[in-house]
Amino acid sequence: MNGWMGKIRAVLMLSILSLVLAACGKENLTALDPKGYGADTSMDMIILTTLIMVVVFLVVIIVYSIVLVRFRRKKGQENYIPKQVEGNHTLEMVWTAIPIVLVLIMGVPAVMTVFDLADESEASDSINIEVTGNQYWWHFNYAGEEVVTSQDLYIPTGEKVYLNMQSSDVIHSFWVPSISGKMDVNPENVNTMYIEAYEEGVYWGKCAELCGPSHSLMDFKVIAVSPEEFDQWIADMQSVDPADEPQDAVAQEGKELFEANNCMGCHAIGSSPSAVGPNLTNFGDRTKIAGFLEPTEENLVDWIMDPESIKPGNKMTGNYPDLSEDEASSIAAYLMQLKPSEVTPESVGGIN
């Protein structure tokens, strides 16, 4: 009795745990609620393959149940030997043909989808963005626009945006589950994909390839805005002048410390390329600090003071002079006021 009760308790606990875990997740970090063309086509493939697997499972269970009931050994037939069907060519052809047909039903649409999502025929007439994966952040250069940013990728809704992706170090993988599929980002070659968002919003992105100790913290965001707001954002970013002086005295001191400590050697403000660290042009509008921290001045001070304890293996650690907490606070105040545009994640629905 105790054995059965233990098994019942174990099954009950597993069932409750499954229900609890099934509810975990974020609204804009799921492939099951597609908000873009790539995610939509991927969802169609998920539904197709799931239906086929369910049908196969049901057929197997039905056949198994029929055989189990109809051909079970009966009393008085202990020595009965049923008719043998070795070498039944019809049966062998059937169970060979069925898997081939099922593979074709799944394989043909899958191949067509892959070619569709890899189609570059409209790239010359669309927005092109050069994407660089770094340990552990993302860099975005809008081709022909003289706009450079990092971590937050702004795109217009209802338009194809082509991403030409390459890594500066190890293999990464670009994935925004709600609006697109995955694409490997390699050091040796450029991989191209396009994304298209149906609705305005802030969509979470992930690196889907193990790339080092802080791989799980290599998050980014895609901010989808209306075409009009996107044009406004581009114009605002193009008008940024790195030489502009902050009006706030603390931020002014922070700017001087930022330049004096050679932070501009790794970072950039404006369209100037920065080969080592993220571009900071619109840092004050970022949805996260270092990809995952809440965008508060306190968190930024902690990051400046000791980035290694927050994001192990990052390339910022040990590459600038030691700063006092007051100096770090001044630099944080300067960076948090870098807000060149009114088109922000909050303007399209906030940070999800």
Automatic annotation (TrEMBL):
Reactions accelerated catalytically: 4 Fe(II)-[cytochrome c] + O2 + 8 H(+)(in) = 4 Fe(III)-[cytochrome c] + 2 H2O + 4 H(+)(out)
SUPFAM superfamilies in alphabetical order: Cupredoxins, Cytochrome c, Cytochrome c oxidase subunit II-like, transmembrane region
Residue stretches making up the Cytochrome oxidase subunit II copper A binding domain: 124-236
Pfam families: COX2, COX2_TM, Cytochrom_C
Top-rank taxon: Bacteria
GO cellular component: plasma membrane
Transmembrane segments: 46-69, 90-115
Family annotation (CDD domains): CuRO_CcO_Caa3_II
PANTHER family: CYTOCHROME C OXIDASE SUBUNIT 2, CYTOCHROME C OXIDASE, SUBUNIT II
Similarity section: Belongs to the cytochrome c oxidase subunit 2 family.
Protein name: Cytochrome c oxidase subunit 2
Organism, scientific name: Oceanobacillus zhaokaii
